[in-house]
Write a structure and sequence with these properties.
alpha+beta, BirA Bifunctional Protein, domain 2, SH3 type barrels, 2 domains, 8-stranded mixed beta sheet, 13 strands, binds biotin
C-alpha cells in the first residue's frame, strides 16, 4: 500500500530485513501497516524520499530526494508501558553514536529526542508510534520508531523555509564535507542492536536512562514545556529511569511524559 515505487532489500547482523524505498509516503506509516499484517521485531524501512513524512505532534517532515537519512525500525518489545519512551531514546542514542563515528561530531539530545549540533541547531528528529490495539497473535505490540537525520540537507540557511532559518542544520554543513547515508545507516543499526538488547531488562533500561541523562542538554536548562492542554515553565532538573523529564516549577516538581520543549536559557 501507499506510494512506494521500488524497494531494495539488504541485511546487517541483527537486522536481516532492511527494505530500501526510492519513494514512499512515510516509512513509519509503512511499518505500522506491515506490523498489522504480522511483520516481526527489527524490520527496517529506509527511504530516499518521503512524500508524506511525519514529524512529532502532527507536523510534517520534509527533505529533498536523496539528501537525508529517513529510516524506521519496527520493534516488538516486552517493555513496561511507562518505559516506552526508552524505545525512542535507544534510537536517538544509537544515532548520536553513529554520527560521532562517521563524522567526529558530538550531537547532544534535546528532550524528548531531538539531536542538536553544538550550536543548538537541529540535526535529527525521532518519532515513535505504537499500535497498542494490534492483534496479540503477532507478538508484543508494535512500536515503530522513525528518525530523520539531516545528512546533506539543508546545505545552508538559504535552503530553509523562513520559519526554520537558524534552527536546522545538516551533518554536511557541520562537518564541512559530504557524509555517506548508507555508511551512516549501517553504523546506526550497529549501535542500535545492543541498545535494543538493553531495553529487555530493568538494569539495561537503567543504563540506557543514565546514558540519556549524560547526553541530554535539556537538563539544567530553563524550559517551557507545551503539553496538550497545558504549558509549564521551570528548570529541567533530571530524567527519571523511564526517560521522563523532571521540571522544577514554582508550583513544585513535575514529571513530563510527553510534550514539546522550548529551551529558554541553556544549562550553565
Ligand atoms: C520530529 O518531528 O522531530 C520527528 C521527525 C521524524 C521523521 C522520521 S523520517 C523517517 C520516519 N518516517 C516518518 O514519516 N517520520 C520519521
Amino acid at each position: 500500500m501507499g506510494d512506494s515505487s521500488s524497494s531494495d532489500s539488504r541485511s546487517l547482523p541483527g537486522f536481516s530485513d532492511i527494505r530500501w524505498f526510492d519513494s514512499i509516503d512515510s516509512t513509519n506509516r509503512y511499518l505500522l501497516e506491515e506490523a498489522r499484517g504480522g511483520a516481526p521485531h527489527r524490520v527496517v524501512a529506509v527511504a530516499d524520499h518521503q512524500t508524506a513524512g511525519r514529524g512529532r505532534l502532527g507536523r510534517s517532515w520534509e527533505a529533498p530526494p536523496g539528501s537525508n537519512l529517513l529510516v524506521s525500525v519496527l520493534l516488538r518489545l516486552d517493555l513496561p508501558a511507562e518505559a516506552r519512551h526508552l524505545a525512542s531514546a535507544a534510537v536517538a542514542l544509537a544515532a548520536a553514536s553513529a554520527i560521532g563515528a562517521e563524522t567526529g561530531l558530538a550531537p547532544v539530545i534535546k528532550w524528548p529526542n531531538d539531536l542538536l549540533a553544538a550550536d543548538g541547531r537541529k540535526l535529527a528528529g525521532v518519532l515513535a508510534e505504537a499500535d497498542l490495539a494490534a492483534p496479540p497473535e503477532h507478538g508484543y505490540p508494535p512500536i515503530v520508531v522513525g528518525i530523520g537525520i539531516n545528512v546533506g540537507w539543508p546545505r545552508s540557511d538559504d535552503d530553509l523555509p523562513e520559519g526554520l532559518v537558524g534552527q536546522a542544520t545538516s551533518l554536511q554543513q557541520e562537518a564541512g564535507h559530504p557524509v555517506d547515508r548508507s555508511a551512516l545507516l549501517d553504523s546506526l543499526l550497529g549501535y542500535l542492536g545492543p541498545r535494543l538488547t538493553s531495553l529487555g531488562t530493568p538494569e539495561g533500561r537503567a543504563g540506557l536512562a543514565s546514558d540519556l541523562r549524560r547526553q541530554c542538554v535539556t537538563i539544567g536548562s530553563r524550559v517551557r514545556v507545551e503539553m496538550p492542554g497545558s504549558v509549564i515553565e521551570g528548570t529541567a532538573t533530571d530524567l527519571t529511569d523511564e526517560g521522563h523529564l523532571v521540571v522544577a516549577t514554582d508550583g513544585g516538581s513535575k514529571t513530563v511524559v510527553a510534550g514539546d520543549v522550548v529551551h529558554l536559557r541553556p544549562a550553565g
